[in-house]
Design goal:
single chain; alpha/beta; TIM Barrel
Amino acid sequence: MVPVVTRGRIQSVQSFSTLDGPGTRCVVFFQGCPAGCLFCHNPESWAAQGGEEIAPEALLLRLERFRPFLQTPPGLTLSGGEPLFQPEFALALATLAQGEGWHVALDTCGWGPTDSFQQLVQGVDLVMFSIKHPLHPEALSKLNPTSVLANWQLLSNFSTP
């Protein structure tokens, strides 16, 4: 069942990638990230209110334009920013995309409540979990390592690769 979400915020869409998961895929960069990592490739995605507001259905229609250029099944990576910053929107998009035959990957730093993380992990085909420096995380980002490590531990309970 697709969660009822009217709109979310994205920073951008990359129409073709071979680096953000298996095969060829599109990448949706979500808007909003609390981590503030010093080495972030997308600092323009940090602000919660930046980017473009869009409905998950409209976003999937935009992505479908690129399907002819992707392998079968087409791939979609939810990246950021941080998709867990908008868990309902991320889950709605993942559910819609899977319903249309897309392979969906989640690229996350693991930030967020465990219940949101658990729901999203169960709604995707692959999780790419980017653990920030575990010895001194406070030197590189604003992440709460306790929350991130709890989600890392939770991930081991699922069969999602």
